Automatic annotation (TrEMBL):
Source taxon at top rank: Bacteria
Pfam families: DUF1353
Keywords: Plasmid
Entries under InterPro entries matching the protein: Phage_CGC-2007_Cje0229
Protein name in the entry: DUF1353 domain-containing protein
Annotated PROSITE patterns: PROKAR_LIPOPROTEIN
């Protein structure tokens, strides 16, 4: 009896994961044109995060998005047990994770779905293979809702960078601050 129950549970989990994967393969409506104008310059902090030591500017579908110098990020929020497979410090994950953290926390430029779509294409732009990028995408779609702050998280980052400086960055890249 117990073996049959285990088989059903395993089958149910496999069907669920397969369904999520198939869904993720079709949820991104169109390719996103993405180009990094600058790569992130990061300095580790005492609280196991990283601080941008220069502005990071990304051109996304004919719009500039800027992450200001001083912004703190944990890169990708991945449990340590998964790091051998999905390390937040992997090259192909760093810049996309910084941009995604900015969109989730402090930017009102994009909604959550768009932030996740951009994250997927940013991972691909940085050389991550399609399957691994989809796994990251699935993770943020399924688990990211509790972290998305609709842009109001910027108030928790006061003191990390000056709002005037952020406005100046956006002015420099000919993009209006929302």
């Amino acid at each position: 009896m117990e073996v049959r129950v285990m088989k059903k549970r395993i089958l149910f989990m496999m069907l669920g994961v397969t369904g999520l994967f198939i869904t993720a393969c079709h949820v991104i409506n169109h390719p996103i044109a993405l180009e990094y104008m600058t790569e992130p310059c990061l300095i580790p902090t005492k609280d196991n995060k990283f601080r941008l030591c220069d502005n990071m500017i990304v051109h996304i579908d004919n719009e500039y998005h800027a992450v200001p110098m001083g912004f703190k990020t944990d890169l990708a929020t991945i449990p340590r047990i998964m790091w051998p497979f999905f390390a937040p410090s992997d090259y192909d994950c760093i810049a996309p994770a910084v941009l995604h953290d900015w969109h989730y926390c402090c930017s009102n430029e994009v909604d959550r779905k768009r932030a996740d779509d951009i994250f997927y294409y940013a991972l691909r732009e940085h050389g991550m293979n399609r399957v691994k990028a989809y796994i990251y995408y699935l993770a943020v779609r399924v688990l990211g809702k509790k972290y998305y702050q609709y842009g109001v998280g910027i108030y928790r980052h006061e003191g990390e960078f000056a709002k005037e400086e952020l406005q100046g960055i956006y002015k420099d890249v000919n993009y209006g601050l929302g």
